[in-house]
Design brief:
Layout lengths: L18 H4 L2 H10 L5 H23 L4 H7 L5 H13 L4 H8 L5 H13 L4 H4 L5 H16 L3 H11 L5 H30 L3 H20 L16 H9 L1 H4 L1 H32 L3 H29 L1 H12 L1 H7 L4 H29 L5 H29 L4 H32 L1
Amino acid sequence: MEQKSPSSSRHSSPSPEPKGLRKYKPYTFLRRQLGKVVPDGVWYNWKWDAVAGMSAGVYQGAIWTFALQLARGKLHATGLQMGIASAAPAIGYLFALFWARQMEGKSKLPFVTITWLLSRGMFCLTPLLVRGAFATEWFLMLICLTPILFSVSAPAYTSIMKEIYPDEHRGRLMSYVRIGMAATMLISARVMGVLQEHYGLDYRWMFAFGGVFGILTAYAFFRLRLAPPLPSEGEKPSLGEFFKDTFGILRRNRQYRFFTISVILSGFGNLLANTYYPVYQVDEFHITPTQIATLQNLGGILSLISLFFWGWFLDRFGSLTCVLAAVLLNCCTPAMYAMAPHIGWLYLGSALQSAAQSGVDLGYLNTTLSLSEPGRAAQYQSLHSFFFGLRGTIAPLIAFPLLGVLGGVWGRGFWLCFFVMLAGVLFQSFALRSARTEQRGN
């Protein structure tokens, strides 16, 4: 049975609004309209979370929509370099357990805001760094170092989401934030794609522009109002004791154990496929910046629409069911690539992947929160992040050697990804069955 922690009183007490904003009619109208779906008790924090999300959308649309394709197409990164760049987001998560221990008894907010400021703000330096004979190396350093730094924030961010949103509304409220993020990412990606292809926009200045909005995400999140951290009871456990206790979660929590196996398998297959996608797009279809933006836009539209569905679905059927449906849908994308006779199939695959990923993101986070004991959300998330780091480091690095073993045939590689992801769906069904069995027993 998925555990529900009682909502804290901080969720139900209205937060006072800044007086200066009340006199602006657009703000008053927006507050009145959103008040129908956002409870008064969470409005203040939700508002700044939404601003951070929309800023993150501009940042991602301007940078990560194009980063890997630019590395391959414009800067001629090798297959090994592409593998390293794809693995970089996961490498930092290998240290998630260490960061979770460091956060014990401390405010989680600085672990988010400082890492966002440093990791995302670094892209403001792109025009200064990415030039000359070592432009490729500097570019790869930026797109590798940034996600490694960013990973520090993951356990803290999860803990903050559990604190500021009540369990019964969390899926819906977080989906609204992601709708704003998807919308701004959609616009940003389209505008930047057109400016690059038709107006000669230098990608370095585009990245600097995205970095400014990355800094804004840190500022907006800094404005959240959180309760003071509870003091630690007794001495902080040693690193070894903390690791032992954290990995013991898999032994003690049957549902989380099946969920973790599912995530490892489906995530491993998905990461293999994600390593192939940009190289396949460039090498086989010679994809242009406008086509990249079109892929992003189609994905963004489906992500936007699907978030309305996933937020409702999660609150109605629970996070485990949400994950099962989302990972099953995600299996369609490598199948689309395996059978693609023309680029239209890639558009369909991108749309399906984005719709699925919206459900996966909401489902993973809320499953971690719902299955964790009170006060241990960061510890559960650190375990989830560690396994992401493990598979995310290995999968991209073995992706192209594995493709070589398969004869270098793209279709075989994508079908392998499909069946590995399908195995993850099977274990997710075990987690759901375990939850229902426990629920009937109670």
